[in-house]
Structures are given as C-alpha cells and as structure tokens.
Amino acid sequence: MTGLPPPTEDVAPLVELIGEKAALRLLEERGGTRVYVSDAKEGRALVEIVGLDAAAAMRRKYGATRVKLPIGRQWRVLCYKAMGISRPKIARRVGCSETTVDDIVKRHGRPDTTQLDLFARQP
Questions:
Q1: Where are the beta strands (DSSP E) in the chain?
Q2: Among 78, 73, 87, which residue's Cα sits nearest to residue 110?
Q3: CA distance linking residue 52 with residue 35, whole number of Å
Q4: What is the pTM of this model?
Q5: Contact 55, 79 (CB under 8 A)
Q6: Closest Cα partner for 87 from 113, 121, 66?
Q7: In this model, does residue 81 exceed pLDDT 70?
Q8: Using one digit for the tens of pLDDT, what is the confidence trace for 91-113?
Q9: Torsion region of 82: left, alpha or beta (phi above 0 gives left; psi -120 to 50 gives alpha)
C-alpha cells in the first residue's frame, strides 16, 4: 500500500515499526484497545492481523506485554481519503460525522476537491 499520507504524530511510531499497511490494518481492527504481544496462543490474533514480520517486530520492541494502540482516527481519515473513499463512507468507517472528516482533511492541508468536477467549465 503506497501513496498513503504521512502518519500523524500519534501513529508515527507504529507505522515506523511495522509499516503503513500493517499499521492501518491493526488500527482498523484494534485501534483504541490494548493488544497482547506474545508468541503464545493469544498472540496469534496479532499475527493474523498484521502478519508474522510485523508481529515479530512488535515482540522485539515490546516483549510479551499488552500494548495500548492509538485510535488513529485522523490518519485513518487521511488514508481513506487518499484511497478515494467517499466522505460518508469514511465517517461511518471511523465513527465520526462528515463534518469531522472535513475538519481533519482541512487541518492537514488536504482540501476536499471531489465536488469540483461537477462545476468545472467545459471548453
């Protein structure tokens, strides 16, 4: 998954550790919760979400412990926007209003231009 926006401050360490694709998937599945990083049976859920390499990287960094994940709402909104997902779908996916989606996009300097084509002048 390339072409995603740079991670926001809250998710940057996670993205740096396991990569953007694994980080996005982990935040989608478990953002805002604690995940158990382990080689034990309970840790297999983490491997299923992020893959063996990313789970191993987390294990090396954190050891066998519970790690609190950020929700990552702002970065997820920016990622979904970059993927071309509509504002209503983004809002439902991250659990916020469309206004919040607009605010996040504006705050990070990525104006919403999806409606401009409707009003473009024809030559």
A1: 34-37, 65-68
A2: 78
A3: 15
A4: 0.82
A5: no
A6: 113
A7: yes
A8: 999 999 999 999 999 998 755 55
A9: alpha
